[in-house]
Amino acid sequence: MKMLNRSWKAGKCNGSLYFLECMVTKGYQPDVMCTKLIKGFFNSRNTEKAARVMEILEKHGKPDVFAYNAVISGFCKANRIESANKVLDRMKRKGFSQDVVTFNIMIVTFCSQGKIDLASKVFEELLRDNNCKPTLITCMILMEAHILEGGIDEGKWYEGEKLVNVMFSRG
């Protein structure tokens, strides 16, 4: 594990993936280090290697919601929404619930693309989710997006009012 970490810190990303692959062939069960590798590969715009690390983690380890969020976020930042949705579906099939971070990732992505209607649908899904509640950050992301899109000027006060009501009702 130390070699994997040292390899990564030394900027040897490809070496890190190679070490990980060697380690799992020898029976090593991947752990939280994989999430760091996933984020690192996405940050260096190497989506295929990030996806490969997640494949290894799913096959030989126990991925958690943090690993899934790292992959979903990475694909969203790479503008690969369909890939992010596939990972989200896989996450759900494996029994993981979305957390507020997962929802926020999708909301931010849609807002940054000007797809406020899709972001609002994700928000509505979040409101229906009994395991998760929106945060002030969630509401502010949507509020800002509506303002930037001119939603308030267009008389869509109900969207802003709904967000304010959610913020107050959630504490």
Automatic annotation (TrEMBL):
Give yes or no: UniProt keyword Repeat.
Answer: yes
| Highest rank taxon of the organism | Eukaryota
Keywords carried by this UniProt record: Repeat
Any coiled-coil regions, as ranges: none
MF terms in GO? mRNA binding
Q: InterPro entries in the record, alphabetically?
A: PPR_rpt, TPR-like_helical_dom_sf
- Map the PPR repeats onto residue numbers: 64-98, 99-134
Q: Name one matching Pfam family.
A: PPR_2
Entry similarity comment: Belongs to the PPR family. P subfamily.
Question: What protein am I looking at?
Answer: ATPASE EXPRESSION PROTEIN 3
Q: Which organism is it from?
A: Salix koriyanagi
